[in-house]
Design brief:
Length: 235
Amino acid sequence: MTTQPRRDQLRDNLNRTREAIAAACSDAGRSPDSVRLIAVTKTFPAADAAALVELGQADLGENRDQEAAPKAAALAAAGLHPVWHFVGQLQRNKAKSVAAYADWVHSVDRAPLATALGNAASAHGRSLNALIQVSLDGDTARGGTPVADLAALAETIAAAPALTLKGVMAVAPLGWEPAEAFALLARCSETVQRVDPGATEISAGMSGDYRTAIFAGATMVRLGRNVLGERESMA
Ligand SMILES: *Cc1c(COP(=O)(O)O)cnc(C)c1O
């Protein structure tokens, strides 16, 4: 269980973050409901995640299956069913586990992973919303597909029965201006929409750069520290 002071802190952080997102939308000439907040609960306990859901935060994100699977199970056991977004690099052998609880996977970056997720979702009788993670600088070691491979991967995902292609995701590369990164991601989104016009989601923006991402058209921002506080170690 969360303590009351922690609950109050999470409520204040959440309110402040929602207001900041609404202000960024307003400054960018966008409707505040055009951006979805995903609270990234990685490294924080299931009790914090549960408290956020009880405070009305429906979308939660995690980046490691080893942590996400038990957290999702703990919330489900408490009768809480947030929309889970898997946002981290994903090994194919974890597809089966992730497909059991995730509603969205933001990090689909290669065809064999897409196929494994599709098969796993089918086996669980579920379907998954898939975003293609783009490696904007081509350094695929940090996850993401090279820009040149986007259309082919989009075709693969669009053809997988248990996957719904929803759009693109990226992390601004180290050393890049976020505005430059997110402008490139917007062009990647257009490439993917030529394969599937319904794939309009753009997952971009973390605690340090979400305003810039909203100006560049992000429809989902993934915020950890702004909502939960500083993490003890980088995950
Ligand atoms: C941790 C993480 C976030 C959230 O980062 P903050 O800086 O805490 O907002 C967003 N996206 C991904 C992929 C992450 O791993």
